[in-house]
Design brief:
Length: about 675
């Protein structure tokens, strides 16, 4: 048979090859074509001539695995003059032919080609044929090792991925413990499976490895059949999914899950090392204003900048996370955690307060920081986070741009507030909130001409509670609409009751900002009027100045819808907010109530009240003075044309029955 030396394709040697009865051909691996074939090979390939056979492009229907295998042969020919005898299935004219073929390298035209000698035709059952083809084409790496860990056989995928130098199975593992675990598993149960990092031609990869004890079919010696599936992409996807689950996408900082999985072990180790631990809750003050005025993209950019500043301020033993929204959490461990938190908090407030350039303008935000400490007690991360959160809200209540440490008093206040919220919900369900009525008196005649309905809470244990006990919490917890509805309905029903007794009184009811901006307010008022049977023209709704600012179109629609029902509209606490003469002209208002603070200052600062009374006279608005307590104040108001007053000079707010008794 020819060796790897160049062959002359003329003369006696060529004649000898032509004379062979066995098919012999030369395959050009680079061009994927038959370079030369004898007559028997032409017959095998179903070709009319060598010229016709050479025109066939074998790459057209050659699988990736076969092309890969041929490339491996070519490398072996170049490297060590390898010779192979294998069973191959050829497909001349699309018809399968199972042959035993000997392959060796041969150089022609300056390239390494493959000399092929078909030794005989094989026959096998379909299952055997298909299993051999599957072994050839599978992407799974399959290797047979001897007892010493040397490779006896690799399928094409294994040969393509395993570096030539890595013939030793053990040497492929990045961590020897993985090899040891597989070896022990096979020894104990005959088979084992493991995820491990291994060395390949592509570098370090993650493989799912299955190993099973067997025998070598050639030598009969103990062997190990190993299959490997590359799961690197899956591992990377898992790592990415884990990162996203434990980190904030916007800033890359750990999120709440990350605190538990990454940061909690750090804090636990710090405690074991005898260090104190502190958590710092950081909330950006009025961050919503940035989103509302500059857009969410600018808000996101601000959060990224703030997270960067926080990261730069932290030491090696400090960690930062983003809890969501505009809230961040800093974790630190130090021998004196309180002093460290105080010093770091001061620098955080200073750094975060520096202007940031957003949308072509400098934007400044402050921060409120709450700190909780873990000194000698057991580490309870959930409790510490709750305590830091309470302290942060205390910092906001203290005026923002501040740092507050948690104290037990803060938790007691929080628990009391939670209990109060529960009581309010129960009280609304049980009808414990009632309207008391303060008389509105005609300044000239001294007769009671109306009443302002004021909410009171008849608490079953604490007795009668004033609005400052529950109104703000109702607003925070979303219960103000229901409270307002109940008081409005009670006031409307009382107006009807008084009318049926011959008392022609106007009843006024305060509306909170939440009630006024509720789109269903006009429908609610209409329903209350229908259900109570009150006179719409004797029902007055009081709103504050701030409600009338910044919502021109919607405000006008709401006010007009109420006025169309005959309801009167009064501006309450006039002069205490952003007083704007324009809205007094624009909106359909009927009354203006002078705040009690101006009445109390009449002796020392009468100028503002003088201006308000003049304004009301010019615009034809009904004037109602609040908080009148002395005859001297009443005389001053009467001299300036004020129509009504209310205050302790006449009476405080009374239950409906006592109010009625006052009139009879």
């Amino acid at each position: 048979m020819p060796n790897n030396e160049a062959i002359s394709w003329q003369g006696d040697k060529l004649d000898m090859l032509e004379a062979l009865s066995l098919p012999v051909w030369v395959f050009d691996i680079d061009h994927k074509r038959v370079f030369w074939a004898n007559g028997a090979a032409l017959q095998l390939w179903g070709a009319d001539s060598l010229a016709e056979l050479r025109t066939r492009d074998m790459a057209a229907d050659m699988s990736v695995s076969v092309a890969q295998r041929l490339g491996q042969y070519q490398q072996d020919f170049e490297r060590d003059n390898a010779v192979f005898t294998e069973s191959w299935t050829l497909y001349p004219n699309g018809l399968p032919q199972l042959l035993k073929v000997a392959f060796r390298g041969i150089r022609a035209e300056g390239r390494m080609m493959m000399f092929c000698e078909a030794q005989n035709t094989l026959s096998a059952d379909p299952a055997t044929l298909r299993s051999a083809e599957a072994l050839m084409h599978t992407s799974t790496l399959i290797t047979l090792y001897d007892g010493a860990g040397r490779a006896l056989y690799r399928n094409p995928s294994a040969r393509a991925k395993v570096a030539h130098a890595a013939e030793d199975w053990r040497g492929r593992f990045l961590h020897d413990a993985d090899w040891q675990a597989l070896k022990q598993g096979v020894a104990a149960a005959g088979e084992a499976r493991r995820l491990a990092q291994v060395q390949t031609r592509l570098g370090t990869r993650w493989h799912e490895i299955a190993a099973r004890a067997c025998r070598d079919a050639v030598s009969g010696q103990d062997a190990l059949l190993v299959s490997e599936v590359d799961i690197t992409d899956l591992k990377h996807a898992e790592a990415r999914a884990s990162f996203l689950a434990n980190h904030d996408v916007l800033t890359g900082l750990p999120n709440r899950n990350g605190i538990r999985s990454e940061c909690l072990p750090y804090l636990q180790q710090a405690r074991r090392n005898g260090r104190e631990v502190a958590l710092m809750f950081i909330d950006l003050d009025r961050f919503k204003n940035v989103n509302d005025s500059l857009g969410h993209a600018s808000g996101d950019e601000l959060l990224i900048r703030m997270s960067g500043r926080l990261t730069q301020l932290l030491g090696h033993d400090d960690k930062v996370a983003r809890l969501g929204g505009d809230e961040f959490l800093v974790m630190l461990a130090a021998p004196q955690a309180e002093a460290r938190a105080q010093e770091l908090g001061r620098r955080i407030l200073q750094s975060l307060g520096m202007p940031v350039r957003l949308g072509g303008m400098d934007v400044s935000v402050s921060a409120s920081i709450g700190v909780s400490l873990c000194g000698d007690g057991a580490l309870d991360i959930e409790q510490m986070m709750r305590h830091a959160d309470l302290a942060m809200y205390a910092a906001k209540d203290a005026g923002r741009n501040n740092l507050v440490f948690f104290t037990p008093a803060l938790e007691a206040r929080s628990q009391a507030q939670l209990a109060l919220e529960h009581d309010i919900r129960r009280g609304l369900e049980r009808g414990e909130f009632v309207a008391h009525f303060q008389p509105r008196v005609n300044v000239v005649s001294g007769q009671v001409v109306g009443a302002e309905a004021l909410a009171r809470w008849q608490h079953p244990q604490r007795g009668l509670l004033m609005p400052d006990t529950f109104v703000s919490l109702c607003e925070d917890c979303g219960m103000i609409l229901e409270l307002g509805r109940q008081i409005l309905l009670q006031a409307a029903r009382q107006q009807r009751s008084w009318r049926e007794r011959g008392l022609d009184l106007t009843v006024s009811v305060n509306l909170s900002a939440c009630q006024f901006v509720d789109p269903s307010l006009p429908a609610l008022v209409a329903q209350v009027i229908a259900d109570s049977g009150c006179q719409p023209e004797r029902l007055e709704l009081e709103i504050t100045e701030s409600v009338l600012l910044g919502h021109d179109e919607q405000t006008m629609r709401t006010l007009q819808a109420l006025r169309d029902q005959g309801v009167r509209i009064a501006v309450d606490d006039f002069g205490t907010g952003y007083s704007n003469l324009a809205y007094l002209q624009r909106y359909p208002l009927t009354s203006l109530k002078i705040d009690r603070s101006f009445i109390a200052d009449l002796d020392e600062k009468p100028a503002i009240t003088e201006l308000i009374t003049t304004l009301c006279r010019m615009m034809g608005l009904n004037m109602v003075a609040e908080g009148v307590e002395t005859p001297r104040q009443l005389q001053w108001l009467a001299a300036r044309g004020c129509q009504e007053y209310q205050g302790f000079l006449c009476s405080p707010a009374l239950p409906a029955a006592a109010f009625t008794q006052l009139l009879l």
